What we know:
- The protein has 220 residues and is an alpha+beta fold.
- It folds into 3 domains: 8-43, no CATH class; 53-141, no CATH class; 160-216, no CATH class.
- 40% of the residues lie in helices and 8% in strands.
- A hairpin with an 8-residue loop joins strand 4 and strand 5 (112-115).
- The termini are far apart.
Amino acid sequence: MGLTQFMPSDYLKYAVDFDGDGRADIWNSVPDALASAAKQLVGEGWQRGVRWAYEVHPPADVDCTTGVPQVTRPIGEWLKLGFVPAYGRKISAAERAETASLVQPAGLYGPSFLATANYFAIKEYNYSDLYVLFVGHLANRMVEPRPFETPWGKVAQLPTADLDRMQRILTARGYYHDKIDGKAGMLTRAALGEYQKRNGLKLDCWPTAALLAQMAAGGR
């Protein structure tokens, strides 16, 4: 519904009359729509003054299967494990105490991030990791006009039907325990990584046609 594409229940819970005309109009009032979206983000756990994520360079031996929301560490601990902030960014003591999860949206073939609670607050608005990255990066570039330091690799995206098949195989073999949606989300990538580990394959947590063929041929 409206400019912010709210569900009806979210409208009832978060809609705000920010322009003072007596109506919470997320269809025609930009102030109302933006204020309502802000109230929703706060309701989903947004923390004022905390970055949505930090781009980092992972260590060479990074275990991409740890890139799931359930694995959290203070940012300071991630740094001790060899993760290096992009562009030589200095991380304050307060920031080092923040809890974050590893996000590698292209497996090992693109930028890596330490995602704070604010990343997952945006994700409650739209579940797509690429959506969260776009919104967060756009906000960053309003004050820090530079791209991600690590470029996106030239990796092929499997068709939805193939990813769906891959998820079903992973589910049948006990690696994957989430919904079958044909998308290479965090849990799917981690499950692929666990499969790669068990079968002695290159660990990159990325779905490929070759990996699907190997799985279909009878990998464990």
